[in-house]
Amino acid sequence: MIYYFSGTGNSEYAAKKLAVKTGDRAVCIADVMNGKAEIEKDDITGIVFPVYFWGLPEIIKRFAKKLKGKLGGYVYSVITCGANTGSADKMLEKLLERKLDYSFSLKMPDNYVILYNPCEKEKAVRFLRHSDKELDEICEDVNRRESKRAGSTGGELKSLFVPYLYDFFRTTSKFFADEKCTSCGLCERICPDGAIEIKSGKPVWIKSKCQHCTACINRCPAKAIQFGKKTAERNRYSIYDLTK
Ligand SMILES: Cc1cc2nc3c(=O)[nH]c(=O)nc-3n(C[C@H](O)[C@H](O)[C@H](O)COP(=O)(O)O)c2cc1C
Ligand code: SF4
Ligand code: SF4
Known about the structure:
244 residues; binds flavin mononucleotide
């Protein structure tokens, strides 16, 4: 089984491609966490998710604790990132209380519009072509049950303190929908952890559930969702826009 968490689709894309090329099944971690899917003991398990602040998304921390002790056979992770993943693989191992047989840090377009300006579509398409080649390599590695660490890990020292910033940044108080909001409800439907409720036609954010995955802000068709003052001028990134 391949378990994945994804906000803007990079990790979902990687997990589904891996599933096709390794003859496995991809299951959404949010579904496991809210009881819609089960953890199954397999001879091969993949865990695919984005790095957040050189560490793990909050839902991955909870999921890893749930997975602990239930893993046998070959276990691998594919951690997607805009630049590098620091020691996210080691953090996952610590929570799983076991070594990963294989881990790849896969560079894909950066989606963190809250801090940076995501790249233009044409550049993202070129970037993805490169990610796709690396993904082919990962599929071959997994089919051979390769044992190694590869890809863009870098910045391991940052993982000593940067992951602690995640909780500080993971506020929802600066999210708002501006006058362009058409009350379509898409943001509520696509939020992977149920952190948005539409009230009087507008989204309301639930802080305790929000992963800061940026799906809502990047995928709003009206570009109506903002976080503070800087995002109105920035590009939006979602793999779903590129693969339509
Ligand atoms: C909250 C947050 C923090 C991030 N932190 C990092 C980081 O520390 N290093 C990095 O290279 N990319 C970082 N990124 C970029 C994502 O990891 C990257 O774009 C990932 O492929 C997105 O995956 P997804 O489309 O499956 O959600 C961050 C993105 C978010 C939303
Ligand atoms: S996705 Fe955008 S337009 Fe649709 S309800 Fe949410 S904020 Fe409004
Ligand atoms: S509210 Fe937005 S940023 Fe937070 S988890 Fe949902 S989609 Fe992601």
